[in-house]
Amino acid sequence: QVQLVESGGGLVQAGGSLxxxxxxxxxxxxxxxxxxxxxxxxxxxxxxxxISRGGGVTYYADSVKGRFTISRDxxxxxxxxxxxxxxxxxxxxxxxxxxxxxxxTPAQAMGLMTSRGGDxxxxxxxxxxxx
Length: 131
Hints:
By secondary structure, the chain is mainly beta.
């Protein structure tokens, strides 16, 4: 079992920045592909970004590419999402997810994360971007 807790959400003006954190406990983070998803009101949950077990491979949704950066610190069992140049359409509840990546190549694991989501999810943190 992996427990995930997000933090860092809040209210920010368009063009501003926020840094989300996802703290993991229960098992070593190194075993897991990590990802961020978001869900806006009246919309389905969508993929935002993912990062490989060692952090060397990342993948982003087109809507955030060039503005968001995903990273992880396995020694601290923590993942991050640096969000810059925020837009009102980025307003959503942001969730972190973990998927066991042992036995998969980074590409395979990324595909599973983007298509199926995580084995474990956090409770979410609200991000609101005002215009």
